[in-house]
Amino acid sequence: MAEPTALGRSGFRLLFFAAIALVVFVRLLPVHPGGGGLPAPDGVLLLLLAWVQRRPRDLPVWLVAAVALFADIVFVRPPGLWALLTVAATEVLRRRAHLTGDRPFAVEWSGVAALVAAMTVARLAVLGLTLVPQPPLSAVALDAGVTILAYPLAALVCARVLGVRARDPSGRIA
Question: Could you tell me the pTM of the whole model?
Fold first, then answer.
């Protein structure tokens, strides 16, 4: 018989896969209301960051890497670069999970904003060093800004809709 924690983890992983599939499906839809205003936020990254903030033990590194690499391939980005940066960012959040107890949401949001900004700068640096053509800096900054501004919505969806809430140090769900 399976342990309740193992059963709970596999249930959360199935929920995670369903949420990622929905985000990818919606992003790939050929519907662009407004005719080219703001770019869409990186929903896969937002979901990964919000989930790891709340339940770092439920998403192992291999799963984060697989999902991020899948997103690189589906969204036609340089394969592996954004996935590597995503794994690094989630590992930073995972390593700091014990320090993040009962902190205000603004602190969480600013930490995620700093990570997204660092990921964007690192991506620009690597692509620049390899002489890969890049979009204008203003477009890249706008993408990062929209992703940062959409994080509260991703955190709200994770906590309220998907039921992914942080655990307190004793292991109970807060």
Answer: 0.86
